């Protein structure tokens, strides 16, 4: 205990200054930590597997906590059993626009037979709390709840409103956030910042290696390619049949190398990660602008799927169709292609490029859907990112804070369209093994992280929202 106290003191000295949560005292923090674990176990027991979702149950659970704490809130049931909930801790004299703490309440489905304990039992095994949503993303939602309660109970003078928003259906159609933006834009659009999932703090060999902040996302722009030709019997080949034309078109498509580009987020990501790399890789990481004109670096980037997508619009051939029978040459053959565009790209330009690349008679290239949600990114030179850096230095030592672009999708994209600076940030440190349980079996979080994460988030929220 004594040793622990000395270590804390040292950590405080090293980081040079106190964090807002230090002022609450150890006993108070311990009370919140106990409360966080208790609430998290209750929350994980609510089955919000999507489909069908049933987020109304979890919205009601949040509501009873907010009500008992005297925090104004509103449950928005947009269809039977499906609901969002929004809650507010308001600034008496706001001088800045609100911060939104966003989380989705639904979770993906599970196969209980493959789990060590039932996925909605919230049991602790060997120091880890098991439950569907422990990584994605009930634990972050829970930390956001605890922060709201702390702001209220501690009577923190705020410079901005802090808004809690929990949504339905992120894992399937994202109806919850779409409904919110379409039907109640007035509740969200005025915000300056938003924090939600998408961040990752990798714990390896007992040390956090990096603090990953999702600041940009790519966007799907799926294509449908069709070839037409004369049908016939398989025993009498037709040189320009639909399948043959399709194969020629696709051969050009998969061989085509899209242009390498260095966006600000990629520049920041590569340079922040450079110290964790060695040799030739480190050289490429240190100078990404130079790397895309350097043969060895281009080879390194394009052969590593975790890097390649950061630098270019990507094209993946995924579905193929032709005849139903081996001895029938069909009059039509088709393919679907998963294209992912970088922020700032124009889909019509990319479609025109793909048509030029294919350039086969009787082959058409079309977008699968008329509506395209453009990829977007948030700025990196913001006070919010500075606050995250400052707090991270205290909790995670010299781990670099790394802006990242995700190849997947989070709700950040919807809210960035409203002009809100939106980041994926997790207050938890996660091992690679734990991270891999997201959407998998035995999803879990270590109890010590449940009892610390809310505090990390509280300090970030305070740095950016407390009245100075
Ligand atoms: Zn999620």
Give a structural overview.
The chain is of the alpha+beta class. The protein has two domains: 19-217 and 378-465, Zn peptidases (Aminopeptidase), CATH 3.40.630.10; 219-367, 2-Layer Sandwich (Alpha-Beta Plaits). The protein contains 16 helices and 21 strands. The chain has helices at 2-15, 26-44, 55-69, 138-153, 175-183, 242-255, 264-273, 279-286, 288-291, 295-302, 305-311, 347-358, 383-396, 412-416, 432-435, 447-465, and strands at residues 73-79, 82-89, 99-104, 124-125, 128-130, 162-167, 193-196, 200-204, 207-217, 219-220, 223-228, 232-233, 314-321, 328-329, 332-341, 363-367, 376-377, 401-406, 421-424, 429-431, 444-446. The strands form five sheets. The protein has a six-stranded mixed sheet with strand order 1-2-6-3-7-19, sandwiched between helices. A hairpin with a 2-residue loop joins strand 8 and strand 9. Helix 2 (26-44) packs across helix 16 (447-465) and helix 4 (138-153) packs across helix 16. The longest helix has 19 residues, at 26-44. The protein starts with a helix and ends with a helix. The structure holds zinc ion. Zinc ion (ZN) binds next to loops.
The shape is globular
Q: Write out the strand line-up for the largest beta sheet, numbering strands in chain order.
A: 1-2-6-3-7-19
Radius of gyration: 25 Å
Task: Kindly state the number of beta strands.
Answer: 21
- CATH class category label of the largest domain: Alpha Beta
